[in-house]
Specification:
- The complex is a heterotrimer of chains A (649), B (206) and C (372).
- Chain A is α/β, with parallel strands linked by helices.
- In chain A, 37% of the residues lie in helices and 17% in strands.
- Chain A contains 22 helices and 24 strands.
- In chain A, the strands form six sheets. Chain A has a seven-stranded mixed β-sheet. In chain A, strands 16-15-17-18-20-19 form a six-stranded parallel β-sheet, with helices on both faces. In chain A, strands 9-11-10-13-14 form a five-stranded mixed β-sheet, sandwiched between helices.
- In chain A, β22 and β23 form a beta hairpin.
- Chain A is globular.
- In chain A, 56% of the residues are buried.
- By secondary structure, chain B is of the alpha/beta class.
- Chain B has one domain: Pyruvate-ferredoxin Oxidoreductase, domain 3.
- Chain B is 40% helix and 18% strand.
- Chain B has a six-stranded mixed β-sheet with strand order 2-3-1-4-5-6, sandwiched between helices.
- The mean pLDDT of chain B is 92.
- Chain C has 372 residues and is of the alpha/beta class.
- Chain C has an eight-stranded mixed β-sheet with strand order 6-5-7-8-12-13-4-14, sandwiched between helices. In chain C, strands 9-10-11 form a three-stranded antiparallel β-sheet. Chain C has a two-stranded antiparallel ribbon with strand order 1-2.
- Classes of the chains: A alpha/beta (649), B alpha/beta (206), C alpha/beta (372).
- At the A-C interface, α16 and α21 of A face β2 of C.
Chain lengths: 649, 206, 372
């Protein structure tokens, strides 16, 4: 990642991920502080900052959660530094309480909220939309349309933030953040920065007063001026160099788009060869929309096609301006999400845009011969079985859910697990033995379990369990556990402690003995915290299946209050376990019962670790030594003792 | 600057495989080889949750002009490089066309539903036959088997890259690879990567 | 006997409240496990036929097939089953002394069989707190520890299956009638396994009129006393009509009418009071707390009884006629009630393909049991 700063020659080109381009843009703007909470597809941003922190005099941190990250970044801004906070779309919800107040107090040093949305929910539990927050809290929203712009727009955004003295939101998407493209570098400024928080001036003085969200109902004093900032942004947006129009003076169809959709639109127009029929208005400033620019472009065509992902946010804002200027711009035919030309859910791609354009413009287009398409489709359907998601080989969660599943089944009272956010979301799927029965946001498993536990007076007899990871515990489960312990809600919280934020790439969290920059940090002891909170705490190694299952059954029968079982075992991809097998695992074919009465392929049919395969000819299980991570758990489930583990010397 | 042009602009390459095979590494290395040669490159990647046992794909768009969609349109691949055979089949159906060049590893990674017995994995010979019946440029190499001989199965991705360059279709040279890999692996790992690369080149030139 | 698999076992037995938790399906495979007295299937098994189903004493029990295999004739109408002799018995001077209930016959016989190597180990039911836990005893001192009644259903046969898996082949088993029935089915090698050998050396059945559902019993007691304080549980002979629970500082009595509420539905379908498919069956004696009733059924049972008597482990006397009459009356009552209930549920001699069958029995005997 050091190439982000190693080569400081202006004009040199590098292949950068969208996230790296945002980092380079911030570096060129002279950023000082960056904070975030990991979440795909945003995580590379803080990681990139951390690697160059020392060289560029930057402070970077993985905060406990997104709200804290925004507060940490805001403090830097209040002290006159340039800062950003970064999160995925769901994280903006977490930060939104502070966000509303920050937007009204305003900022001093340039400050960005970088949100990486995940249209299509490729790595999320939903495809939530963060753009509406910009409208809700009245701050400007910028969306880069390619990789170069991801860098340039970020740099521009810092200046904008300082011009209007407020936070600016930059929204990327998975196909921008996790895609890569050529980026031409600009120069890097000096790294000198001095922080001082000034508060001696009058209340509400942006330069010298205390930074507060007004304590009394006086909207005209703060809300009014905040709206003026937004108006100023709209004026600046009229001349923003990142809003561009390409196409004939008066095209048959005006396409308005932003973000990664710009690339899909360009691709579609190129493939359909309709450059002379359509014009593309690419917007980088999507809130507030610059009214004159929009008006000028609306006058180009009677037909307008808005291409965007998730909610019809841009489309609706354009329609408002079109209605307001209808006398000048004329009556339009709109195409987009409302008309059904763009699907209302899921991420876009060039094919969806092509399909919409062929309908709107009555074009006949076939990318490949139908006969070829049919032949290969049939081949894929018959020859390429789907790959369902599952836990990695050697994952402690597989063992944990095995025990949780069995404990609940044996208990026999129809117990259930409230799920949480992390790799263990797969507890809802066969890979986790379909054990998890609720799944919502960070920490909500514990909150729901706290609530379920109090339903005894209404006759509920089912044992209640919740799972949460170590990072999730600090992020949002602690308040829920506090609630449960205080109210004596009888549930069992299973803390899947795999010693890092595993799902997003093993970032440190408050329980880690080091921070993202590699400095030693105070490692908070989860066990001690839970004990201090007053919960009954037990610890087990999930790879010890019998002990874990028995402990779970014991805790489920133990009636009083909230109980915590910490299942402690490092992630198979963690630095301490990755590539290091604890056991050499093998199958004694002469003992393997296979499909017969007494086993019926427990290891391959049910346990489902990718490291074990089924020999369809010999009718025995075998270990794929390339894939096997050597945890040895399968040797303990084998009813015949055919799977054998030998400790690696 | 390389003077060779590709026969299409953008030229579209898909590198596919299963999470953990080094797919992302391969696409980054290939992408930076093109950037060094003055091309504008766009790479679209799917990773994150989907990497856990799931199919992974990198879409590379190579152009003299600009960035393109990080998702290749249907039927739009010029070259498919697959680290796993059924992923080649899957990608061929979605992005292939009769003129596509396909290079695939032969070592299966069984999906969990196959391991469970809910689905069947075809014989590798059947996959080869079916693929060769639908396109005229399909090459299968035993990259993982060769990597195992080098006692490091993860090098299959580098062997595959060597094979791609060995085809002499892309305007890239061995030196471009050396430069790109040197930026990404520790110094003491460069030689073994070069060996794997050369092995791949030899495999397709035999 | 019709053979099916785990799916039918769950459908026809567990879901129908017929499972008594005998443990016959435990430890054969990873799927069936007992916990808190309840048998659970952890994951689905796809096999159409399995030992779990074939061994279960609550589905597809072919009484004539079992009778033919053990006694060489179809199932008859004697309420006590087939037997060679019925006597009164008690432990002899050579037998060790444990916490006997009644005459100590079971412990004495098992002790003798183990010491004289008629068997290599004994499958018994021990207790952890109030929870009955099956064990494999390979020394006679362990046998004495397990003496005394448990009153709750127990997965005893789980230990039998485990011992077989561990390589034991000549085992003594002390089993309730339902467990004895399961053992008899196991001995038939219902799945025709090539490597099969009869794992039993001696099956001692114990009389049973009902057992308590462990989970319900545990809940009942835990709502009334601290389970950790319980030292012993006893039901004294009539006319007491109470269960006595002994703790360190007190003895608490619960009326049997309350306790009987905790008998699982499965027991009401049981046709067997005296463990008719055992080698030897043993029960308490009405009116004689120091003696047992001893029914000897098979040749090997007879041989062991005879040897135990000559070795001084067992003392026999004749059983008075009125006691025999009463025993037959009680056994007949249980059988009649159970058949009536099972027939009402339409699980007797169900034609193949029309639904689950609990029992298969020849019509002549069935008619006699009905009193027709």
């Amino acid at each position: 990642m050091s190439y982000l700063i190693d080569d400081n020659r202006e004009g040199i080109q590098h292949l950068l991920m969208g996230n790296e381009a945002i980092v380079r843009g911030a570096l060129e703007a002279g950023i000082n502080v960056a904070a975030g909470y990991p979440g795909t597809p945003s995580s590379e941003i803080i990681e990139a900052f951390s690697k160059i922190a020392r060289d560029r005099n930057i402070y970077a941190e993985w905060s406990t959660n997104e709200k804290v990250a925004m507060e940490v970044a805001a403090a830097a801004s209040f002290a006159g530094l340039r800062s950003l906070c970064v999160m995925k779309q769901n994280g903006v919800n977490v930060a939104s309480d502070f966000l509303l107040h920050l937007a009204s107090s305003g900022t001093r040093g340039g400050m960005l909220l970088v949100t990486c949305d995940d249209p299509g929910a490729l790595s999320s539990v939903n495809e939530g939309e963060s753009r509406l927050f910009a409208k809700l809290v009245e701050i400007p929203l910028l969306e880069p349309g390619d990789f170069q712009e991801a860098k340039d727009l970020t740099k521009w955004a810092f200046d904008l933030s300082e011009k209007i003295r407020n936070l600016v939101m930059i929204r990327s998407v998975t196909r921008m953040s996790h895609a890569s493209g050529n980026v031409k570098f600009g120069s890097l400024p000096d790294t000198n920065a001095h922080a001082e928080y000034r508060f001696d001036g009058p209340l509400l003085d942006m330069e010298t007063g205390p930074m507060i969200s007004m304590i009394v109902a006086a909207p005209e004093l703060q809300h009014g001026p905040q709206q003026e900032k937004l108006k100023k942004a709209a004026q600046l947006f009229e001349d923003c160099p990142f809003n561009t129009y390409n196409g004939p003076e008066s095209p048959e169809l005006l396409i308005i788009t932003s973000s990664a959709c710009t690339l899909y639109v360009r691709e579609a127009v190129n493939l359909l060869n309709i450059e002379d029929r359509v014009g593309i208005l690419k917007l980088a400033t999507t809130w507030p929309l610059p009214p004159n620019l929009i008006k000028r472009n609306l006058m180009r065509s009677k037909a307008v096609f808005v291409v965007e992902e998730v909610l019809p946010t841009l489309e609706e804002n354009i329609k408002i301006l079109a209605a307001e200027t209808a006398l000048e711009t004329g009556i339009k035919t709109f195409y987009g999400k409302h008309s059904g030309h763009i699907p209302s859910a899921g991420e876009l791609n060039p094919d969806i845009v092509i399909s919409a354009l062929t309908k709107i413009l009555h074009i006949d287009y076939r990318p490949v011969e139908p006969s070829f398409e049919q032949k290969t489709a049939k081949m894929a359907a018959t020859m390429a079985p789907t790959r369902e998601m599952t836990f990695c080989p050697g994952c402690p969660h597989r063992a944990s859910f095995w025990s949780i599943h069995n404990a609940i089944a044996l208990d026999g009272r129809n117990g259930f697990v409230c799920g949480d956010i992390g790799c263990y979301v797969m507890g809802t799927l066969p890979g986790g033995y379909s054990t998890v029965k609720t799944l919502h946001s960070m920490g909500s498993g514990s909150g729901l379990a706290s609530g379920f536990g109090k339903l005894k007076q209404f006759g509920i007899e089912q044992p209640v369990l919740a799972v949460c990871g170590d990072s999730t515990f600090f992020h949002a489960a602690m308040p829920a556990l506090t609630n449960a312990i205080h109210h004596k809600s009888p549930f069992t919280l299973i803390l899947l402690d795999n010693s890092g934020t595993a799902m997003t790439g093993f970032q440190p969290h408050p329980g880690s003995p080091f921070d993202v920059m590699g400095n030693t940090a105070e490692a908070l002891d989860i066990e001690a915290i839970c004990r201090a909170m007053g919960g009954r705490v037990e610890i087990a190694d999930p790879f010890n299946l019998t002990e874990t299952r028995e402990m779970l059954n014991y805790l489920m029968e133990y009636k009083d209050g909230a109980k915590v079982l910490i299942l402690r075992q490092a992630c198979a991809l963690s630095p301490e376990r990755r590539g290091k097998k604890k056991f050499d695992v093998s199958v004694d074919e002469s003992i393997c019962i296979g499909e017969n009465c007494g086993c019926d392929r427990l290891c391959t049919r049910i346990f489902g670790c990718p490291g074990i395969t089924w020999d369809t000819e010999k009718k025995v299980s075998r270990i794929d030594t390339i894939i096997c991570a050597g945890c040895g758990v399968c040797a303990d489930i084998c009813p015949a003792g055919a799977i054998q583990k030998k400790e690696v010397a | 600057m390389n003077s060779i042009n590709l026969d299409r602009d953008p030229y579209s390459i898909i590198i596919t495989g299963v999470g953990g095979q080094g797919n992302v590494m391969a696409s980054r290395v290939m992408g930076s080889m093109f950037v060094t040669n003055g091309f504008s490159v766009t790479i679209g990647e799917t990773f994150g949750a989907s990497q856990r046992g799931g199919s992974v794909m990198s879409h590379l768009r190579i152009s003299k002009k600009s960035s393109w969609s990080p998702q290749i349109p249907r039927g739009g691949a010029d070259m498919i490089v697959s680290l796993e055979p059924i992923e080649a089949v899957r990608v061929l159906a979605a992005y292939g066309n009769p003129g596509v060049i396909l290079l695939s590893n032969t070592r299966p990674i069984f999906p969990v539903n196959v391991i469970k017995g809910e689905a069947t994995y075809p014989a590798i010979e059947d996959i080869k036959t079916a693929v060769k019946n639908s396109i005229s440029h399909a090459i299968f190499i035993d990259a993982t088997e060769e990597a195992l001989k080098m006692e490091n199965p993860i090098l299959a991705n580098i062997i595959m890259l060597g094979a791609v360059i060995g085809l002499n279709i892309l305007p890239l040279e061995r030196d471009d690879f050396h430069k790109a890999i040197a930026e990404r692996v520790p110094h003491d790992k460069i030689d073994v990567n070069m060996d794997a690369f050369d092995l791949g080149t030899r495999l397709v030139r035999q | 006997m019709q053979r099916f698999g785990s799916r039918e076992l769950v459908e026809n037995v567990i879901r129908q409240n017929l499972c008594i938790g005998c443990g016959a399906c435990n430890n054969l495979c990873p799927y069936f496990k007992s916990y808190n007295g309840k048998t659970t299937m952890l994951f689905p098994c796809t096999l159409p036929e399995g030992r779990c189903f074939a061994y279960c004493p609550k589905t597809e029990v072919d009484l004539d097939e079992l009778s033919a295999a053990l006694f060489h004739k179809p199932y008859g109408d004697d309420p006590l089953g087939y037997y060679r002799s019925i006597m009164m018995s008690r432990a002899g001077a050579r037998a060790g002394h444990g916490l006997f209930q009644a005459g100590g016959t079971v412990s004495a016989l098992m002790q003798f069989a183990l010491e004289k190597r008629h068997i290599d180990g004994a499958i018994l039911t021990d207790r952890k707190g109030i929870e009955p836990t099956p064990i494999l005893a390979t020394e006679s001192k362990d046998i004495l520890k397990c003496a005394s009644s448990k009153y709750t259903a127990a997965p005893t046969l789980a230990a039998l299956n485990r011992a077989i898996k561990e390589g034991f082949g000549n085992l003594g088993i002390v089993s309730t009638p339902c467990q004895t029935l399961a053992v008899a089915q196991m001995r038939l090698n219902p799945l025709q396994e090539n490597t099969f050998r009869d794992p039993t050396g001696l099956v001692i059945g114990i009389f049973c009129t009902w057992a308590l559902d462990f989970q319900a019993f545990k809940v009942f007691l835990s709502q009334r006393i601290d389970l950790a304080e319980i030292r012993k549980i006893d039901i004294p002979p009539p006319p007491a009509e109470v269960m006595e629970v002994f703790t360190d500082c007190a003895t608490i009595e619960y009326p049997l009418s309350e306790i009987r509420q905790l008998v699982p539905e499965a027991c009401s379908y049981c046709i067997d009071m005296t463990a008719e498919f055992s080698d030897i069956s043993v029960g308490v004696m009405e009116g004689r707390t120091d003696m047992n009733t001893l029914i000897t059924r098979t040749d090997r049972g007879q041989r062991i009884v005879d040897e135990a008597v000559s070795a001084g482990y067992l003392v026999l006397t004749d059983l008075p006629d009125e006691n025999l009459e009463h025993l037959k009356w009680a056994a007949d009552n249980k059988k009649k009630r159970a058949f009536a209930k099972a027939e009402e549920k339409a699980i007797v001699n169900t034609p193949a393909g029309t639904g689950p069958s609990y029992l298969r029995i020849n019509h002549a005997t069935l008619k006699k049991i009905r009193g027709e």
